[in-house]
Amino acid sequence: MSEDEVPQICRLYGEPDFLSNIFLTLGLGDLLSVELVSTEWRNFVLEENIWRKKVKIMEKTSNWKYTLQQHDCSNMEHLMAKKLYFQVSSVIISNKIGTCIENNDLVVEHEHYTKMYEKSVSISRFIKKVKMYKINKSEENLFFEKRHRTHQTIFKNMPKTIVFFDQRTNFMMSKLLVFGPTSFPILVTKTGAVVMAGSYYGKGRVVVLPHEQLLANTGLIQGAADWVAGLDASSVEPSKIAADPKSKAWSRLENDWSYIQVGKRTLPVHDVQFVKREHILVSNPAVYITEGHYDDNAEKLLTFVRNGGGLIVGGHAWFWADKNPYKCVLLNHPGNKFLSKFGITFSGSFIDYKDAKFPIKTTDIPSIKDSYYFFTQLRTLGLNYRIPNENLYDELYMFMNELKEFEQFKDIIELLRKALGI
Question: Which of 2, 111, 143, 180 is the least buried, fewest Cβ under 10 Å from its Cβ?
Answer without folding.
Answer: 2
